DNA sequence: GAGTTTGAAACT
DNA sequence: CAGTTTCAAACTC
């Protein structure tokens, strides 16, 4: 931020007024830190302005920074900036303040003012950040309320959401939260500084700031200062791969000693989702509760030692934010290993333990190396993430970070996302590889992320988590499995190395819950798996591609005619049903919740989601509906009707939800939702705004290929696979009987709204599935 | 839970 | 590409 603006001068003036005010003096007296008055400011303090000082910082957000400056002075005085800020503004302040100032100026920051002892949710801040400049001029209480106030509110969600948002926005991969809080005064002011990577101007003052140095890659950092005039509780939340704890510690210590404050450095749990600000003075307030037991797999956060523990002048604990990554890919193995190694070095104990918690080890891979355990966990997560999509770049960053060894906070955003939704959806996430425990909470399947979660969350969650994961569904349907969470494949002869195997088809390793025999689809057989996969792909490049592609944009269409499956949602290759009339899950189209298309070779199609001929017969409608589908194919009409009726009975909602778009509410509507799971990989959703890869297939892709989950690409850049050009099954027809539907996904896509939108998000992995290029 | 049905995947 | 076999999920009892 450039402080050299008229505005800035004004600010300075204001500040000077501040300093001169009685209040200010009073504060100064209280504060161990001596305020430095700006030399050039002579104006008297205006009490009025004090209450609402003009924005000191030019930051966009800024408006609310008034007091921040004030706080700043106190902030981290001990921390000397390696570089003096060249900014005039900074000069105005004492060196002590300079740091903080620079930080503020640098970053678009949000200030959070509140009374001491109250917690500030970084996560929220983060969220704000994603938007533009978050302004937190509200009192902490509010902040808290905001974050945690909601009864059902899960802090993690917030944090995750925020992170996810960040990720989505491409902003901070990691963030650092710094909280200083003074315990003494009730009216502790807290400043929350948020910095978005995008916002950071490398050339700007900020770059000079010490903090910057601390934060290497940090895309975003959150600085929260809760300043008391006296004792200080310092709690830092770091999350961000870029921040090194080691760097931080000295800093913190220093500040602590200087200020005679209490410093408490806590690792923020996943992405700021759980940031706690404690007022050490007398109260320790935890904004968010972290449930150690529950600590999130997804959160990836590590709580170091007792976050809540109070310590005077002592640095209690430092932990790096979870570094958990989701590495999904088989290919990523090496990376994961590295990560694990790094983790051990860094935060280690905690991290590992968490990891363990997060994912049941059992599930983790048979291999059971430490790395593996972590890996598995990550893997599952990773898959999820990939599916989710937001993170492509982000992921790349993470990887880089990982490799670089800077892991703090790797998990951050991505994991956040997961965690956010996870809570709601409970892990039905595919973490296939992830521990079964976490994975399966059937109850959550039905949850609609969109409702519970912020948009970002909603994005992800939906398909993936729920419906499309075949396994999950299945689990869901299975009482036992659900809790166990892990029933997966049941292969006996394929060794789980063929597409018969759902796990394999989905691109995930088999886990304990699987009942497979002689399973080779395990990390220990990674090579074999990859090889086999390649082989299969060589035979059919689309073998691991999602079978159903749907576009969220098609929703409107659904609204128009709920009974018809949007053209955008179709089974890629079509089914070949002969006896099931496409009314049972034997039919992939039906299972996938989409109507049959011209690509289908089915006979006697009665697909409730849309018949091959274009007619839609759903549930009830189907009952009364005249058999448009000719039974010429020898289908037993009676049987069909019976089936239909049964289906309807079984899945009454199907009639309601015939929509293929399960995005928002994936599971429920689908006929198979109750039990079902889509067959292998199933749906890929493409939307203009977001992409949902459902399920497993997203996983597979992600798993197998490190590709980034989502990418916006021009239509013309659409992968062939999606287009269907390369597809074994060419885009057969451009027009469907009803004139709306098009058989091939490709074609469909073309006509889909998404396409019209001109912007498409594609699961990048799709194209890549074919390539399993191992990344040793 | 065992057996049957079904259709995709794999094979020829 | 078509036909056959294999396979495992879906389904039924």
Structure in words:
By secondary structure, the protein is of the alpha/beta class. It folds into 3 domains: 268 residues, no CATH class; 207 residues, no CATH class; 174 residues, no CATH class. It has 36 helices and 11 strands. It has a 5-stranded mixed beta sheet, with helices on both faces. It binds a DNA duplex (12 and 13 nucleotides) through loops.
Count of beta strands: 11
Structural class estimated from helices and strands: alpha/beta
Mean pLDDT: 44
Helical fraction equals: 40-55%
Low-confidence stretches: 1-9, 11-16, 34-486, 552-565, 617-681, 686-776
What's this, in brief?
The chain has 776 residues and is of the alpha/beta class.
């Amino acid at each position: 931020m450039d402080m050299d603006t008229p505005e800035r001068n004004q600010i300075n003036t204001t500040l000077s007024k501040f300093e001169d005010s009685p209040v200010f003096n009073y504060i100064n007296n209280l504060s161990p830190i001596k305020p430095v008055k700006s030399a050039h400011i002579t104006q008297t303090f205006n009490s009025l302005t004090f209450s609402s000082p003009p924005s000191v910082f030019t930051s966009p957000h800024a408006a609310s920074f008034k007091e921040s400056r004030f706080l700043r002075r106190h902030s981290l005085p001990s921390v000397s900036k390696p570089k003096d800020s060249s900014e005039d503004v900074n000069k105005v302040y004492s060196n002590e303040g300079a740091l903080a100032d620079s930080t503020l100026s640098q970053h678009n920051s949000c200030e959070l003012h509140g009374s001491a002892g109250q917690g500030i949710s970084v996560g929220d801040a983060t969220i704000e950040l994603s938007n533009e400049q978050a302004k937190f001029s509200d009192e902490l209480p509010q902040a808290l309320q905001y974050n945690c106030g909601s009864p059902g509110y899960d802090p993690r969600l917030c944090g995750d959401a925020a992170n996810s948002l960040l990720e989505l926005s491409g902003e901070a991969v990691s963030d650092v939260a710094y909280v200083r809080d003074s315990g003494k005064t009730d009216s502790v002011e807290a400043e929350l500084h948020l910095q978005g990577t995008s916002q950071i101007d490398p050339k700007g003052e900020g770059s000079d700031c010490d903090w910057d140095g601390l934060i290497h890659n940090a895309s975003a950092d959150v600085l929260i200062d809760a300043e008391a005039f006296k004792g200080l509780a310092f709690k830092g939340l770091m999350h961000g791969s870029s921040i090194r704890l080691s760097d931080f510690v000295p800093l913190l210590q220093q500040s602590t000693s200087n200020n005679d404050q209490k410093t408490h450095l806590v690792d923020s749990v996943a992405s700021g989702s759980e940031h706690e600000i404690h007022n050490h003075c007398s109260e320790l307030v935890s904004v968010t509760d972290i449930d150690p037991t529950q600590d999130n797999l997804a959160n990836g956060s590590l709580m170091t030692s007792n976050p809540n523990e109070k310590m005077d002048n002592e640095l209690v604990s430092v932990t790096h934010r979870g570094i958990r990554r989701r590495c999904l890919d088989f290919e990523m193995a090496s990376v994961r290993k590295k990560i694990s190694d790094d983790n051990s070095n860094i935060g280690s104990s905690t991290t590992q333990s968490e990891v363990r918690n997060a994912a049941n080890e059992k599930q983790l891979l048979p291999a059971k190396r430490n790395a593996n355990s972590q890996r598995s966990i990550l893997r599952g997560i990773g898959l999820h993430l990939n599916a989710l999509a937001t993170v492509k770049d982000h992921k790349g960053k993470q990887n880089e970070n990982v490799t670089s060894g800077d892991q703090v906070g790797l998990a951050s955003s991505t994991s956040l996302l997961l965690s956010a939704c996870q809570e709601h959806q409970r892990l039905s996430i595919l973490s296939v590889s992830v521990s079964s425990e976490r994975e399966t909470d059937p109850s959550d399947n039905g949850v609609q992320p969109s409702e519970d979660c912020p948009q970002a969350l909603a994005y992800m969650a939906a398909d993936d988590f729920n419906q499309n994961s075949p396994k999950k569904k299945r689990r869901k349907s299975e009482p036992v499995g659900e809790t166990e969470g892990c029933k997966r494949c049941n292969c006996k002869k394929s060794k789980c190395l063929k597409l018969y195997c759902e796990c394999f088809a989905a691109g995930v390793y088999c886990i304990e819950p699987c009942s497979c025999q002689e399973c080779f689809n395990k990390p220990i057989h990674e090579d074999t798996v990859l090889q086999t996969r390649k082989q299969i792909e060589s035979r059919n490049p689309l073998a691991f591609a999602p079978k159903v592609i749907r576009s969220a944009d098609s929703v409107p269409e659904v609204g128009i005619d709920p009974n018809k499956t949007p053209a955008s949602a179709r089974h890629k290759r079509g089914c070949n049903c002969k006896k099931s009339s496409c009314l049972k899950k034997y039919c992939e189209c039906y299972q996938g919740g989409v109507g049959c298309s011209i690509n289908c070779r089915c006979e006697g199609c009665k697909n409730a989601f849309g018949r091959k001929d274009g007619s839609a017969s759903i549930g009830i409608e189907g009952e009364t509906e005249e058999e448009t589908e000719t039974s010429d194919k020898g289908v037993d009409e009676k049987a069909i009707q019976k089936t239909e009726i049964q289906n309807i009975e079984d899945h009454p909602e199907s009639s309601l939800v015939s929509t293929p778009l399960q995005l928002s509410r994936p599971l429920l509507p689908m006929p198979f939702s109750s039990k079902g799971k889509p067959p292998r990989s199933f749906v890929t959703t493409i939307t203009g705004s977001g992409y949902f890869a459902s399920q497993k297939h997203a996983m597979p892709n992600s798993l197998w290929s490190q590709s980034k989950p989502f990418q916006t690409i021009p239509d013309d850049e659409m992968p062939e696979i999606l287009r269907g050009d390369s597809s074994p099954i060419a885009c057969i027809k451009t027009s469907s009987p009803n004139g709306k539907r098009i058989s091939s996904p490709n074609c469909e896509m073309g006509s889909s709204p998404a396409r019209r939108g001109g912007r498409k998000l594609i699961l990048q992995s799709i194209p890549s599935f074919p390539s399993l290029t191992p990344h040793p």
